[in-house]
Fold these 4 entries.
Entry 1:
Amino acid sequence: MWVSLHTVLKVPVVVRPVTASQALLSWATVTRADVDHYTAVDMQLYTKITIALILGVVAGLLANILDIDPLTRLLVSIEPIGTAWIRLITMVVVPLVFASLIVGTASLGDITKLGRIGSKTIVYYMATTAIAVTIGLLLSNLVQPGARMSPEGLEALRSNYMAEGASRVELAQDAPALIDVLLNMIPRNPVAALAAGDMLPIIFFAIFLGAAISALPMERRDHIVGFFDGLNEACMVMIHWIMKLAPYAVFALIGAVIARFGLDVLSSLLVYVVAVLIGLALHVAITYSLALKFLARRNPLAFFRKIRGVQLIAFSTSSSNATLPLTMETAEDELGIEKEVSSFVLPLGATINMDGTALYQAVATMFIAQVLIGDISLTVQLGIVLTATLASIGAAGVPSAGIIILVVVLEGVLAGSGIDPAAGIALILGVDRILDMCRTAVNVTGDLTAAAVIERSEYEHALRGGGAR
Ligand code: ASP
């Protein structure tokens, strides 16, 4: 019997053919009797996480609006529970990505297939990111969020966040140049890359090793692949265990964020926040739905329903990297995407594909420029499309990465105006965490959509006689 993470806590139980590892997974999770028990008295994990999220928001709002100091202190003091959980799930990322990529690559059987999947993935990622930035720009021109700020609101933001803004600019200065990013993809020492959790060099080495393993004689190959397959499945079991704690972590994370979050900031930046949110919603509703319908040939609504858990976790953790184990599990078990595609497309996506971040960068840049320098020419806007697309590739899948990389985009736009990027960052820092949560949910949705699109195109390639799938 096969029981996925998501089916453990809900009906109906999905029964699929057994593999040894799947049997292990089901053993490690529940028996059929347990499932019946769960379905009678327990809620779906997804529902539990949603409730935790709502409770966290309500508790945080109560503490914030009514200024209940002990509640704020309590919420802030339990935040480490959430942080511990993020560390737990992040702990699985490196072994999971490494093992799963090796298994995925080694079982491709044909190295040209890897090149094909790789180039399709990169083109798709760049295209959807450029569309996201364009949506952000169109919206900013339409809504003009920066033109609606009151001078008092502006002054308050500037004085509150200027120092923090400057520290973000300093962090951005440490970001490596593009050529170094490319060179750094080739690890001098793969063990050091694994130890440091540097995703691109890990991906590079795992693919290289996987390709070499696929060139070995069958007995040798099966031995190594069997080992990594086992490691991969053990990671899935760990994810399953860790996910049981997710509702508590979500409550702890959200409660503290909302308790600290000043609602006054929200009111002065409301138009900007709403513009980003509408942009993100449009990107999901239009770009991803069309891609799913016409490229992946899947029902978008059914697809989004299956990935709700991943979106919630991305939202709560603000980190594509921390969400990656669940993203991979969901792709394989819930969406039925083949490992050879998901093991490559998803870790790469968590690292380089950030549509939500790119869209946010476009709106944020336009907002800051509208406030600080007035109107922005079309040429500068085209520059924003390019830099925001590239900058989002450079953003790591961790909380707040987007705002640090935003400095790079801002420097281009504000160049020659004599305005310090820190002044721009100071304007929007107060609402960054909330937007980070939303853009991260879009980032992971984009990665999963890409996996479905690439898998479909591989399938069609095979149908046209392009070799085994
Ligand atoms: N937190 C985002 C992510 O992990 C990156 C960002 O800050 O936009 O996907």
Entry 2:
Amino acid sequence: MAQEAAKAQTAQNWTPDSWRSKEALQLPNYPDQAKVKETEDIIRQMPPLVFAGEARRLKAHLAKVANGEAFLLQGGDCAESFAEFNAVKIRDTFRVLLQMSVAMTYGGSIPVVKMGRMAGQFAKPRSADMETIDGVTLPSYRGDIINSLEFTEEARIPSPKRMLRAYNQSAATLNLLRAFAKGGYADLHKISKWTLEFTENTAQAKRYDEISERITDALNFMEACGITGDQMPEVIRETEFYTCHEALLLPYEEALVRTDSITGEYYDCSAHFVWIGARTNQAQNAQVEFVRGIKNPLGLKVPPTMSPDDLIELIYTLSPENEAGRLTLIARMGAGNVEEKLAPLVRRVKDEGRKVAWVCDPMHGNVETAESGYKTRRFENILSEVNEFFDVHKAEGTHAGGVHLEMTGQDVTECTGGLYGIKDEDLSNRYHTHCDPRLNASQALELAFLIADRLKENKK
Ligand code: PEP
Ligand code: CO
């Protein structure tokens, strides 16, 4: 039934603006609609940020993830910000992702698909429309693309002009990421240079050094055999790096839809991959309506409240042709919940023969408020959720396809635990996130080694 209904809907009755006739949750109430229209028109004239061919290539990689032949690493800020926009931040997140991917590729003998929550991850869904501090109530912060974090009446008014700044920042970020990926920074010969100073002298830094020595030996061996310069395969000299964000702010996303000149199909050219968040996953609502018509590979967050029937309906709506690579399910159940909540969903998807990649977001089900009042996550819970995720897939005979993380290359103190043993009272030292607490570089690398061990075990 659900399948027939979805088929009838797909492609037909879809236009880049068909979401406008649906109920839309989590969108800002802009006071000046004429300004919104003006801004959309400007963005519609701008060059696309990504090329459709790149999104198709990513989709092919994600098909491998769905088949258990590759592993997906998605990571970056919860919310990018205008204030913390600089080359060092971009480079540091990029290099931790490179380090993590080396740890996993080496340990797990599996290719890693790298995707940054970067160059467009600005809009935030919120649980409450209003926020109260010291008796003053104002509209919630919804991400720098919408309003400002500053707690004043003026700052919290949504402004469409912010979409232009987000577009420009995304373009500049993407430009640098492409340069890093293809221009020599990601060359495996530089592997020992990716280490971040503040992660030195830890157990995982030592483990990373060992790997980098072995890889360097292998490269030296290749060179001694005469494979040098341009003969060195491209995969050694450069990497592929993709971008993703939540498809939340539909006026912006719609304004970046382009028709691919090669296939005539629609792509949302704001990023290679976009996902549907846990608060806007209603099959009949605007966000789902929007993404079902674009050809980008898609993500769908799967919270513990989602029933198997609802998930199946969404899968038929978002991936009616059942092509591997089209849809990645990002489970965010919370530590201790995975067996109970995820296993029935995995089983049902398998029984229905749906081709999806399963990825674990161990962040969003593990948020808590520390005694100090800071929103935090315990590293041990993050590790547990990832372990439980691997256990469920092992038991069900399906593939643990990847992880989706909120992390940064900076030395922040936002999540407690990890090898440095960040405590509740340390959170205030370097708590910089604009939204949810992120893993710092050392915690992220520690997690990557745990994943590498689990991937290795799966190979046996
Ligand atoms: C997020 O990824 O930042 C987010 C808000 O996640 P979720 O929709 O799963 O709560
Ligand atoms: Co978040």
Entry 3:
Amino acid sequence: MSFHAIAIDGPAASGKSTLARALAEKLGIVMVNSGAMYRAVTWKILKENIDPSDTAAVVALLEKLEISCGQTGSLSTIFIDGEDPSPFLREPSINANVSAVSAILQVRDRLVALQRDYLKSTHVVMEGRDIGSVVFPTTPFKIYLDADPSERDKRRAKDGEVDSVAQRDAADSSRQTAPLKVADGAAFLDTSHSSIEGVIDAAIAILAKQGFPLPQAAELEPEPTKQMRWIYWLGWMSFGAAYRSLFGLRIIGAENLILSGPVLVASNHQSFLDPPLIGNLYKTEMVFFARKTLFKGFGKWLYPQWNAIPIDQDKPDMSSMKTVIRMLKEGWRVLVFPEGARTLDGEIGEAAPGVGMIAAKAGVPIQPVRIEGADKALPRGSGKISLARITVKVGKPILLSPEEFKSYSNKEGYTALTERIMTAIRAL
Ligand code: DC
């Protein structure tokens, strides 16, 4: 499994962190602030009363340090010997010494290895000075940000920071190892006269050009209030209102939702309440599966109005699978319950490889979702509603490159992809 790295480099106060954070949120990936890592090591050096210019002493300390990097939500974290230095990282003493510390070869080697480790388990947008040139030189997704020095000074002053931006830039650009520079293949973006939104839009356009598998360009826009057909809207509105009042419907992770373009939504299945529950996460129509036997009498008219595709639950139903694969390719959002049937005991059961096959063949983003409490609100085998609280947890989308989709394109691959999706659901 390979992950994507977006490299954002540039001088101090050029807007790298703001852009990287916004991209991480929009794309549902992790933002790594590599400068914070150099700052954290500087903090420890100063705390131990070591002179940052005494390379031998710095290296001796470095060898003893336990540095652990991780993430909370979409942001990177760093602990040194079990301590979180983040409250101290913008102090004047750190601003004044971090360039000297980051010029030490052994410091860079240690931190670059930790930076590369992120890519073993997640897509990242990483910002710094040498991300496109040294940390991830082969990534095709590189942006170099810059802004007028006077503008950058203003930004730092506005943040209330004591920081000699020009001095730090000079040191960072002129050092021997991994100096700040425009990496090969990086797109240059000047942020001097742009709003934050303007910079984000420009960066997304650059990434699209560089071939980053954006969930879909259009979905990065705020959700358009598309009209629902009235009969779909009637169901959507009535179920939504009922769920909110009866079950205190709570949604966690709504910021992870991919709001337009094709998405395969994969959820555990607890109750008949589930499909409208998922449908209510969105303000535009989506496609569902429904048991073939429901398409009788009035149901024969109603279910198609609610974009339900009939599925035979007794045997693998290739024709309905083909229908949803086609609809995903046409840009629809489709809900699939990988387990096929509702849970008997509230636990998440085994999944059939169908969802992996649909995902691999359609090649669209996958949104893992976990429903909790619907099995108590309307248990399987009972017609009685209870006022149990329902929670829907939305996970970060699983975004795969075309090569990764290809690697899942046989029976074992479908099973592996299904397992990956189920693991993401269970982790929520
Ligand atoms: O991005 P920042 O201003 O927080 O970075 C602080 C310092 O860390 C910067 O002056 C140089 C150093 N740094 C580096 O050498 N390489 C990186 N990839 C990131 C930061």
Entry 4:
Amino acid sequence: MAEQATLVLIKPDAVQKRLTGLVLARLEDAQLQLIGAKVIRVSRALAEEHYKALREKPFFQELLQHLCGDLHGGAPVLALVYAGPEAILKVRKLAGATNPDHADPTTIRGAFGRNTLEGVMENVLHASSDDREAAREIALWFRPEELIEPLRSGRPAVSTAQNKEA
Ligand code: IDP
Ligand code: MG
């Protein structure tokens, strides 16, 4: 199985609803390694760059407002990087279909997402969809020094810097 890394963003709708812990608990079911995490209040420029492939979509402005927290009391995003075998597909499966109304109820989006009457998809999280997108997105949201190296079997479960001191 291919070793991969994937970007997850717990979106402002979930942060505002205090769902962060529940979403993290679900993500842990994938048995992947968490190699990066930070809370970010997202700028318009970062949101536009993240979703640039969707800039022609009719919902693009609402999408940017959502990611920036404008629709959820200024709530931030929790950005995470998970690494491990088939990490991208594993996280996408746990996330469920894009539209919460179509997502299996046992998935994160199916359980916690909703479509608002104003047409905003409050779908709880972003998850990279393939290797290329994951590489671009991880580089966009994290500096290399903000990520710990994925653990290889037999290595102690601490960061590289701590390993050197040991
Ligand atoms: P994904 O998040 O499952 O990868 P994408 O098609 O990449 O889905 O869309 C990115 C985001 O754009 C979705 O997570 C959702 O927030 C928003 N979005 C996608 N389709 C629609 C739509 O038809 N209406 C409103 N928002 C949408
Ligand atoms: Mg996508």
